[in-house]
Amino acid sequence: MTPTIEFYEGIPETLSNVSLRRHRTTGVRSLVLIFEELASIEQFNSFRNRFAKALKLTDSEGVIEVQPSGIKFIFGGPEGDDLARVDCTIEIDRDDHWERLMRFMHRYADANEMAYGEPEDQ
Fold it and tell me: Is 117 part of a structural domain of the chain?
């Protein structure tokens, strides 16, 4: 089974990048999913399909439904109205939830030829 990510039921999205973070004082871990395009926005697909009310992650273990703690739309282009990317933040405070999410992310990465890498120092 190929892992999928959906905002709207039946419309799989393609993940462009991922950022793993941990809050220094609280220790809460977060995962930022970065999408350069959203299939659900293309051709107004979101108006024809049911909103999942949560981000739906599906893999061979089953379905994870999680409500993002934040979604940021970043626009660019000459007029500033082209969707450049969408950052979807998910905060995880339980170890078992984090481990399950990481198993999903590994499966998704393997299926989509993504690889883990440390950010370069600037």
Answer: no
Cα gap 109→116, rounded to integer Å = 8
Residues 95-111, buried b or exposed e (16+ Cβ, 10 A)? eeeeebbeebbebbeee
- Counting the structural domains of the chain, the total is 1
Give residue-wise pLDDT tens across range 17-38. 999 999 999 989 999 999 999 8
What's the pTM? 0.79
Domain CATH for 33: 2.40.30.220
CB 52 within 8 A of CB 7: yes
From CA 50, how far away is CA 111, in angstroms rounded? 26
Element (H, E) at 33: strand 29-35
